[in-house]
């Protein structure tokens, strides 16, 4: 008997909920809670009340509310698909009720963009002592990219030295400007300073100032920009042989121009301002006027290509492996009514949850994805809509 409580009912959650609902062999009972009850009810209607057994309104910023909800539902696992701000209150509630925990993004304080694991790693001993597990970052990046790295290190190399994670959205949603996941989190991530790991230290770059033109499978050449992404922090810790680790994401000219203008006029700021006697955060206001990422999928054309280039040593010789997935926006829309960015995050969240509930990935403590055997996760990616491919190639990066 496995019972899961999913918190959040946005773009990513929609995919996870629908996928879990189709897999009674992993998820006997599913419960859904979020800030806006009507969104949970709509998903329950779509999936059926026999699969989504109960829906609830919850403010997950408030650990006591989450504790009460967990005590009512008594889940084996809480899947947190709300926003990074809610990670710690939900982890606190899991600790208080001795319930396993999973998320897809590291904790973020509201007033400062940090993108680091320090707060959640600090729960390691508490979770261990309580006999419960937290799986951090079970999306695509972080998530699948961590598992790709572990899989490649396990099966293709004696030692890995250079890691480049590449994330390309080659799709077109037809909107002038929209983000593919929560706009607030997305814009906080993109506007921070770039950072990468080299020879034992972090090096910083101005935001989106380093570019490579990379050729993506089934998409073509796209301008790719170096930025910091949270999985770099855990990967350099858990693979200390890495001499360099970087993350690249593609952006089109129109997107960058919009972003520059919005930044230039202060609309991406997270500093509260006084507006007609009320404190508002410009970025939160911007989120409210941008398209909801969950609404982009109808008519979205093209594919994503996300993968990892790894260069290392096997039997004394250097080689490079690229491991990647292509995901088609229209196919995701046809399957679950979502675009590929929600899909590529929602499916790995389902797989992480399934492996925890089956006991395949289960040990008390707080863990990142690369700390488990990658093989069972990789098998399930192929079965549940995110097939992957491996090629041996030359490194495409400028020396
Ligand atoms: P959305 O904004 O679409 O959904 C977030 C959901 O959380 C909404 O339903 C929202 O409620 C709910 N929520 C927000 N605050 C609270 C609260 N205080 N209490 C209860 N519920 C709340 O975001 P996405 O689905 O795009 O993203 C979900 C998560 O996935 C984010 O943390 C994001 O960073 C992460 N992500 C991870 C990726 C990866 O590859 N690892 C990639 C993409 C996203 P309401 O509907 O009322 O607003």
Summarize the structure.
The chain contains 14 helices and 18 strands.
Structural features, described:
The chain is α/β, with parallel strands linked by helices and 399 residues long. The chain folds into 2 domains: 3-136, Rossmann fold (3-Layer(aba) Sandwich), CATH 3.40.50.720; 144-336 and 388-393, Dihydrodipicolinate Reductase, domain 2 (2-Layer Sandwich). The protein is built from 14 helices and 18 strands. The protein has helices spanning 11-21, 37-47, 63-73, 87-97, 118-121, 124-130, 144-156, 183-191, 231-238, 253-264, 282-289, 329-336, 340-357, 374-383, and strands at residues 3-7, 29-34, 52-57, 77-80, 100-103, 133-136, 159-169, 194-198, 201-205, 211-216, 220-227, 244-250, 273-275, 278-280, 303-314, 317-328, 365-368, 389-393. The strands form 3 sheets. Strands 7, 8, 9, 10, 11, 12, 15, 16 and 18 form a 9-stranded mixed sheet that branches. The protein has a 7-stranded parallel sheet with strand order 3-2-1-4-5-6-17, with helices on both faces. A two-stranded antiparallel sheet has the order 13-14. Strand 15 (303-314) and strand 16 (317-328) form a beta hairpin. Helix 1 crosses helix 13 and helix 13 (340-357) crosses helix 14 (374-383). The chain is globular, with a radius of gyration of 20 Å. The site of NADPH dihydro-nicotinamide-adenine-dinucleotide phosphate has 33 residues, from helix 1. NADPH dihydro-nicotinamide-adenine-dinucleotide phosphate binds at residues 8-13, 34-36, 39, 58-61, 81-84, 86, 104-105, 137, 139-143, 181-182, 185, 293-294, 345.
């Amino acid at each position: 008997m496995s019972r899961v409580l999913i918190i959040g009912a946005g773009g990513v959650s929609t995919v996870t909920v629908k996928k879990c609902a189709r897999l009674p062999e992993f998820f006997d009972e599913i419960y859904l809670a979020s800030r806006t009850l009507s969104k949970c009810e709509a998903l329950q209607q779509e999936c059926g009340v026999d699969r989504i057994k109960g829906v609830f309104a919850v403010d997950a910023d408030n650990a006591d509310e989450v504790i009460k909800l967990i005590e009512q539902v008594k889940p084996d696992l809480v899947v947190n698909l709300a926003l990074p701000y809610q990670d710690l209150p939900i982890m606190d509630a899991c600790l208080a009720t001795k319930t396993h925990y999973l998320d897809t993004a590291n904790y973020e304080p509201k007033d400062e963009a940090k993108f680091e694991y320090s707060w959640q790693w600090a729960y390691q001993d508490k979770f261990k002592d309580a006999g419960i597990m937290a799986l951090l970052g079970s999306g695509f990046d972080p998530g699948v990219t961590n598992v790709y790295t572990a899989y490649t290190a396990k099966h293709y190399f004696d030692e890995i030295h250079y890691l480049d994670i590449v994330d390309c959205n080659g799709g077109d949603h037809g909107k002038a400007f929209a983000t593919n996941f929560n706009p607030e989190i997305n814009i906080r991530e993109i506007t921070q300073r770039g950072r990468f790991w080299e020879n034992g230290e972090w090096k910083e770059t101005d935001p989106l100032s380093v570019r490579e033109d990379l050729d993506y499978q089934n998409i073509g050449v796209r301008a790719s920009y170096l930025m910091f992404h949270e999985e770099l922090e855990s990967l350099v810790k858990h693979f200390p042989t890495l001499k360099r680790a970087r993350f690249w994401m593609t952006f089109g000219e129109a997107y960058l121009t919009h972003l520059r203008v919005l930044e230039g006029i202060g609309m991406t700021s997270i500093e509260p301002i006084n507006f007609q006697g009320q404190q508002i955060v410009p970025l939160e206001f911007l989120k409210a006027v941008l398209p909801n990422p969950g609404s982009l999928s109808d008519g979205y054309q093209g594919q994503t290509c996300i993968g990892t280039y790894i260069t290392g040593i096997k039997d004394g010789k250097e080689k490079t492996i690229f491991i990647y997935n292509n995901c088609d926006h229209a196919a995701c829309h046809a399957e679950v009514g979502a675009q590929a960015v929600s899909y590529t995050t929602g499916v790995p969240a389902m797989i992480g949850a399934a492996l925890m509930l089956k006991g395949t990935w289960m040990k008390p403590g707080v863990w990142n994805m690369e700390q488990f055997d990658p093989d069972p996760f990789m098998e399930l990616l192929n079965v549940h809509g995110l097939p992957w491919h491996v090629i041996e190639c030359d490194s495409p990066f400028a020396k």
